[in-house]
Amino acid sequence: MDREALLILITILCLTVLAVIVKILISSRRKENTDLNADKAREISTGDFDERLKNLIDQWRVMEAVKLVRETKNIGLKEARDYINKFMRSEETGGIVFESAKKEEIVTPEELDGKIFELLMKKQKINAIKLVKENLNSGLKEAKDYVEEIERKLNL
Fold first, then answer.
1. What is the pLDDT at residue 93?
2. Based on the domain organization, do 55 and 26 belong to the same domain?
3. Are residues 24 and 59 in the same domain?
4. Domains identified in the chain, total number
5. 62 and 80 part of one domain
6. Who contacts 70 (Cβ-Cβ below 8 Å, separation ≥6)?
């Protein structure tokens, strides 16, 4: 019996030591990841963050834009979405103004199509979609389809 009790005690001790080692390794891995994320965020924030964010939004890569904001600013999903909305309205953006932030009243369909053409030539498809959505009071899918139909007609 004493030998079995000693064996059980040694096994428990070994498992405890192993658990502590695993915990230390996991903790150091998290610290490394946190340090890497902090370095990445500093690199992004000191670089051309606003320009990268603008390009992602213009290319309709919203999820990547949200991820960029979340990682750089170390904020939650709702805060990142709010930041992007402010960014698009040119609040706290260092002067970058999106075309969609300048709401213009467009009366005729020809003027609307002309403005969409201009935006598409500038590679600002997202702004063209927003312009259609705002001026035709349509849904996002309908506005996107409208803009893509113009792209097809113009072979862009």
1. 45
2. no
3. no
4. 3
5. yes
6. 76, 77, 80
Predicted confidence (pLDDT) at residue 71 exceeds the cutoff of 80: yes
- pTM beyond 0.85: the answer is no
How sure is the predictor about 100, in pLDDT bands with cuts at 50, 70 and 90?
Answer: very low
Show the domain range for 91. 49-96
Does position 56 have pLDDT exceeding 50, yes or no? Answer: yes
Q: Are residues 85 and 103 in the same domain?
A: no
**In sequence order, what DSSP letters do the residues of the chain get, joined into one string?**
-HHHHHHHHHHHHHHHHHHHHHHHHHHHHHHHHHHHHHHHHHHHHHTTHHHHHHHHHHTT-HHHHHHHHHHHHT--HHHHHHHHHHHHTTSSSTT---GGGS-----SHHHHHHHHHHHHHTT-HHHHHHHHHHHHT--HHHHHHHHHHHHHHHT-
